[in-house]
Amino acid sequence: MEQMLVGRSSQDFRKLMAEVSEELRDALHSAHNRLHDLFVDVLESTERSLHQMFQRTYGQPYLQNAELFQDLFSQLKRYYCGGGGHLEETLSEFWARLLERMFRLLNSQFSITDDYLECVKELQTLRPFGDVPKQLKAQLTRAFITARAYVLGLGVGRDVANRVSEVSMSSVCVGRFTRMLYCSQCRGLSALKPCSRYCLTVMKACLPDLEPEWSRYIDAMLLLTERLEGPFNMESVMEPIDVKISEAIMNMQENSMQLSYQVFQGCGQPEPSGMSRSARAVPDTFSFSPYSPEELPTAAGSRLDRLVTDIKEKLKQFRKFWSSLPVSICQEEHVAAAEDEPCWNGHEQARLVPEDQNDLENDPEVSANASRPDALIRQQILALREISNKLKNAYDGHDFYSQDSNEESSGSGSGSGVPDSESFLTDAPVLENRDESSTSPTSSTSSSSSSSLASSIRPDILLLFFSALVVRDGLR
What we know:
Helix content is about 60%, strand content about 0%. Helix 3 runs antiparallel to helix 4. A hairpin with a 4-residue loop joins strand 3 and strand 4. The strands form two sheets. A two-stranded antiparallel sheet has the order 1-2. The C terminus is likely disordered. By secondary structure, it is mainly alpha-helical. It is rod-shaped and about 105 Å long.
C-alpha cells in the first residue's frame, strides 16, 4: 500500500506541476511564435515592397540586377535566423556590388573591366551613395540584434519552463508529499485536506525554485523591450528600406558626372566600349516615381507595438512565478484546506498554528532538500543566467550570437530537424534540444538525478513541448 501511495503521489505531483505551469508555458510559447512570425513577415513584405517599387521605378535596369537585392534579403533572413556572420559585412558587400552595377550602367560608353571595378571599390571616400549606407548600417544592425535576442530570450524562457514542469521529486520530497496527501487515510481521516500552512512548508521545500535567476531573466527581457519599443523597432526600420536604397541610387545618379571624373582621376580613363549609349539601349537617367499618398507605408511599428505591449504585460505577470508557486498551489481548493477548516497536519487532525509551523520549517531533511536543487534545476538556472547576460549585451548593441554560435552549436545537438541557421530560434543555450516526437522528455542529467526513485515510482505521462519554426526562402 505504501509503495502504491508513493507512486500515486508522484503522479499527482507531475500533474500538479503541469497544471500550474500551463499558463506560463503557453504564454511564452505563443509570444515566441507570434513575434518570430511577425519578424519573418516584416522581412518578406519589405522584400515584396522593394521589388514592386523598383520594378515600377527603374524598370528593366532593375530586373536585370534583381538578384542583387534578392541576395541581400536572403542574407538578412539568414542572419535573423542565427546563420552567423556579420551584418555589417553583408551590408558592405551589398553596397559594393550595387556600386559596381551602377557604375557600369552610368558609364556604359566605356569598357569597365572587373579589375577596374576593384579600383573603384577602393575609393570609399567618394561616398557615392551619400549617408544612406552609414545610416542603414546603424539602424539595421541594432534592430536585428534586438530582434534576434528577444526571440531567443522567449524561446529560452519557454524551454526552461517546460523542463522544470517535468521535474521529478527527490526521495525526501516523495515521502513528504505522500504523507501530506495520503497518510491521513491510514488514520481514517481520508476526508481531511492538508492544512494550508503545512502544505506551504512542504511545497516551499519541494517545488523547483529558480529564484533569483528567473526574476533577473524577466528584468533583462523587459529591459530589451525598451529597444523594441524605441528606435530599434525592426518594423519601423525595415519598412522604409526600399525608399532609402532608392534615395542612395538617386544620389549616385545625380552626382554621376562628378563621381566618374573622380574615379577617372584615381583609376585612370577606361577604354571606350565602341558603342554609344543609345545603341546599348541604356537610358541617360533612371526615372524615379515617388510614392503617391495612398501608397505610403502604414504607421510604422503598429503591429509590433501591439504585440510587444502584450508580451511585456505577460512578462511582468510572471516575474515572481516560481517564488510564488507554493502559495499559488496551496491556495487551490482541491489541494489544501481553508484556514478555518479542520485539516491534516501530517500527524493528526488539527488546525496548524504559527508556532507549529516552526517545527516543520526547521526539519533538517526538508531544509537540506530545499538547499540542494537537482542537476536539471541547476542546468535551468545556468541557462537563465546565460541568456540574461546575452539579453543585456543585446541591449547595449553587442551581437552575442556571432561570437559564441560555434560554442553553443557544439554543446547541444539539433533534435528539431531544422537547419543550424534557424536553431537559435528554438534552442535554449546549454540545453539539449527535444523533438515533438521524442519519448524522452528530460536530459540525461535529469534522468540520473531521479534514478533513486526508479524502484518505487512508475514512469508517468510526461509533457511533450517543443516547436520548430521554418523560415521560408526569400521571394524570387
